[in-house]
Prior knowledge:
- It contains 15 helices and 18 strands.
- The protein has about 475 residues and is α/β, with parallel strands linked by helices.
- It folds into four domains: about 1-160 and about 205-240, 2-enoyl-CoA Hydratase, Chain A, domain 1; about 165-200, no CATH class; about 245-385; about 415-460, CATH 2.40.50.140.
- α3 (about 65-80) packs parallel to α4 and α12 (about 280-300) packs antiparallel against α13 (about 305-320).
Amino acid sequence: MRKYKFFCTVPLLFLTLTLRADQVMIIPIKGVIDLGLSAFVKRSVTYAWNNHISTIILEIDTPGGRLDAADLSCEELLNFKGKTIAFVLNRAWSAGSMIALASDKIIMAPGSSIGSAEPRVGLSGKEIHDEKIISALRARFRAIAETKNHNPILAEAMVDKDLEIKEAIINGEKKIINLQQLQNSEIKNIQIIKTISPKGKLLNLSYLEAQKLGLAEAICKDRETLLAYLGKEGTKIIITKPNWSENLVRFITHPVVSSLLLGIGFWALVIALKIPGMGLPEFVGITALLLFFWGYKLAGLAHWIEFLLLILGLILIFIEIFILPGFGITGSLGIICLFSGIILSFLKYPLTLPWRDLQRVGIILLSAVFITGTFLFVSFKLLSPKKGRRGIILFETSKSQITPLPDIMPGDIGTAISNLRPAGKAKIKEKIYNVQTSGEWIEQGEKIKVISQDGNVIRVKKA
C-alpha cells in the first residue's frame, strides 16, 4: 500500500512542479527608476524563484533614474536561474538600458529605443565628467553585457561618449569595433563599413538598429506576439505590481518629496525651538523626519545607526527646548546627530565616499534648507504682531482690558500673567500688555523686565 502511494505521489509532484515551471512572470519597469522599484524587482524575482517560475519578462518603458537602484535590480536578475527577457515597449534609456542588458534576451517593440546612459547628478541633471566614475560605470555595463552574451562594445558606448564605435570587416568577418582600441592593435586588414556611434555622442539605438547590430534578438509588436515568439502561448501569466509600501518608498525617496519632508521637519523644529511648548510643531517635525527615515529604511538605505542618530538628535534637541532653554551645546550636538543620520541615509555604502551620491545629498539638503527658509519667513511674518492685529502666537486670552498703545519705558518691572512662549501677556504698572521675549521661555508668575519697545511689540526678559 505504501509503495502504491509512493508511485502515485511522485508523478503528481512532478506534474505540479512542471506546471509551475511553465509559468511566466511579467515585471513592469515603468517610470523613473528609484529605490522603490529595485525593492519591487527584488520581491518579484524572489517570488518567481520560490515558486519555480522559469521565465521572467521585464516590460520596460523608462527614461532612466538612479543607477544604484538599477544596479540592485541587475544583481537580482543576474542571480536568477531561469530565463529573463527584456521587452522594450518604448524607452530603455540610461538606467533602463542597464536593466535590459542584465536580461538573457532583449526584444523590442516598434518605435522603441535603447541607450544613452550618461551619469548625471540628481535634481540638477548636470553631467558628471569624473573619469573615475565614468570608467567604473563603463566597466559595470561591460561586465553585465558579457555575462548575458550581449555586445560589450555597444554597452560601453551607451555610457562613454568619448568612444567611437564602427562597424567594420576584419579578415573577412563583420565586427563591431572600438576605434580607439583598434588603433592600438596590430590588425591591418580592416575595411570600415560605417560609424555606429561618433565620438562625442552617446549610443542610442532604435529598434531596427538594435536588431541589425544583434543587440535585440527580435521585434514584437505586443505581449501576445512576444509570447508566441517565445513559444509560451497558453502559458499561465503572473503580472506583478508594486505593493503599497513599494509605492510609498518610490514616493518618499523621490528627491523633491525627500527635500519637502526634510524642509518641513527642519522648519517645525526651528519653530519648536523658538516657541517651546506648543506641541504641534514638535509633532509635525517628528512625523516628517520619521516618515523620511522610514521610506529610506524600506528602500534598504537607512539602517539602525541612522535611526539611532535620529533619535539621539531629537532627544538632544528636546532637552534644549524643555530642560535647558536657550541655544547651546546640547542643541548643537542634536543638530549634528540629526544631519549625520540624514546624510548616511542617502548613502548605500556609508564607510566610503561616493562623490556622486554626496552631490545628490547636497542638492537635496540645499533644497530642504531653501524650503525651511521659505516656511520660516512666511511663519514669522504671520506670527509677528503688527499694528492693527495681534500675532497668531498670542494664544492666551484674558478678560482684562489690554492697552493697545503702551506707554512704558525700558527697565520697567512687571509680572508674567501667562506663559511667555515667547509671546504672552504681562502685567506692568497695573496694566496688562502683549509682550514677547527674545526666545527664552518664562513661566507664568515670574518677574519680567522691559528691554525695548518696537512699535506695538514690547520685548521683555526675565528680571
